[in-house]
Specification:
The chain has 292 residues and is of the alpha/beta class. The protein has one domain: Spore Coat Polysaccharide Biosynthesis Protein SpsA, Chain A (Alpha-Beta Complex). It has 11 helices and 13 strands. Strands 8-11-9-10-12 form a 5-stranded mixed β-barrel. A two-stranded antiparallel sheet has the order 2-3. It has a two-stranded antiparallel sheet with strand order 7-13. Strand 9 and strand 10 form a beta hairpin. Helix 3 runs antiparallel to helix 4 and helix 8 packs across helix 9. It is globular, with a radius of gyration of 20 Å. The chain starts with 6 loop residues before the first strand and ends with a helix.
C-alpha cells in the first residue's frame, strides 16, 4: 500500500440542526470564520497535507459548497476591472488547479460511517484523510500534516484525539491506548459515546482521521449502532482486530464549530489573530470590557 496520502474525504451532508433556523437554507459548512467559510479552512488544511483529490460527501440541498469551489469568471472580471487585485487573488483558484474536487451525494442520512462508505468508489484502494469540518483546529503545523507524518512512519490508521472532561465522554468516540511516547499511542479499544462511568478513558476522537482502505470492508459489515446509524467508531473497533490503529494527541487548539459557543469562540479568536483586524478588534473588545 502506498504511504502517500493523496485523498481527503469531507462528510458534509448533515443538516446542522443545532444552528436552525440559520441552516434551513444555508449549509453550516459555509458559515464564515472572519472572511473564509469553515469548509475552506478544511480544504486548505487537507491540501497543505498533500491531498490532491477532494471528495465531498454531500446532499442535494448543499450545492452552494460546490459553487464556492467552482470558478466565477464574472466576479473575477469585475474585480480585475475595478483594480481589486487582493480580492481577486482571494477568490481565484480557492482550490489549486492541480487538485480535483469530486461531489458524491449521500442519499440517505445514515451517519458518518455511511458517509465515508459512500466515498469508496472515488477513494479506491489507498489511504485517505477524513476531515470533519465542524472541528476547526488552529496550529502551527496543520493537524492533518501531523497525522500524515505519523502515518508515513507507521503505515497504519491514525486518529486525532484530545483529553475531554469526564462528563463530555457521551459526546465522542472514546479510546483506550497503549503508550508509545511523543503524543502517539496504539489504540486497543474504542467505543462510541459512552457514559462517563463506562468510558475507557477521557481521550476523545475529534474530527480528523487517516484511514487505510481496509476500513471500507469493515464499514460494509457494520450494522447500525448508536442513533440507528452506521458508526465509523464501530468499524474502527473491528479494524483494530486486524491491523494497528494509532492515536495522536495533536498539537493545536480545537474549536467545536458544531455548537454555537464553539463557533463564537472561533470567530472571536480568529478575528484577534487576523493581521488586518487584530489591533482594532482588540481595542473594541477592551472597550466592551470597560463598559461592563
Amino acid at each position: 500500500m502506498s504511504l502517500k496520502i493523496r485523498v481527503a474525504v469531507f462528510p458534509v451532508a448533515g443538516r446542522g440542526t443545532r444552528f436552525l433556523p440559520a441552516t434551513k437554507a444555508f449549509p453550516k459548512e459555509m458559515f464564515p470564520i472572519v472572511d473564509k467559510p469553515l469548509i475552506q479552512y478544511a480544504v486548505e488544511e487537507a491540501v497543505a497535507a498533500g491531498a490532491e483529490k477532494l471528495i465531498f460527501v454531500t446532499c442535494a440541498s448543499k450545492s452552494v459548497i460546490e459553487d464556492h469551489f467552482d470558478s466565477d469568471s464574472e466576479l473575477e472580471r469585475e474585480l480585475r476591472e475595478s483594480g481589486k487585485i487582493e480580492l481577486l487573488a482571494s477568490v481565484k483558484e480557492i482550490v489549486p488547479s492541480t487538485v480535483a474536487c469530486i461531489y458524491i451525494q449521500q442519499e440517505i442520512p445514515l451517519g458518518l460511517g455511511h458517509a465515508v462508505l459512500c466515498a469508496r468508489p472515488a477513494v479506491g484502494d489507498e489511504p485517505f484523510f477524513v476531515h470533519l469540518v465542524d472541528d476547526l483546529i488552529y496550529s502551527q503545523t496543520p493537524c492533518l500534516e501531523q497525522m500524515r507524518r505519523c502515518y508515513e512512519y507507521h503505515g497504519s490508521s491514525v486518529l486525532a484525539v484530545e483529553a475531554v472532561l469526564a462528563d463530555q465522554t457521551a459526546d465522542y468516540g472514546i479510546i483506550a491506548t497503549e503508550e508509545e511516547g511523543l503524543g502517539l499511542s496504539r489504540v486497543i479499544s474504542i467505543v462510541e459515546k459512552p457514559n462517563p462511568e463506562d468510558a475507557p478513558s477521557n481521550l476523545a476522537v475529534v474530527g480528523r482521521y487517516v484511514l487505510t482502505p481496509t476500513i471500507f470492508d469493515k464499514l460494509s459489515a457494520t450494522d447500525r449502532g448508536v442513533n440507528n446509524e452506521i458508526q465509523l467508531t464501530d468499524a474502527i473497533a473491528n479494524l483494530i482486530v486486524d491491523e494497528p490503529v494509532y492515536a495522536l494527541l495533536f498539537e493545536g487548539l480545537r474549536y467545536d464549530c458544531g455548537n454555537k459557543l464553539g463557533y463564537l469562540k472561533a470567530s472571536i479568536e480568529y478575528g484577534l489573530r487576523h493581521p488586518d483586524l487584530s489591533e482594532a478588534f482588540t481595542a473594541y473588545l477592551a472597550g466592551l470590557n470597560k463598559e461592563s
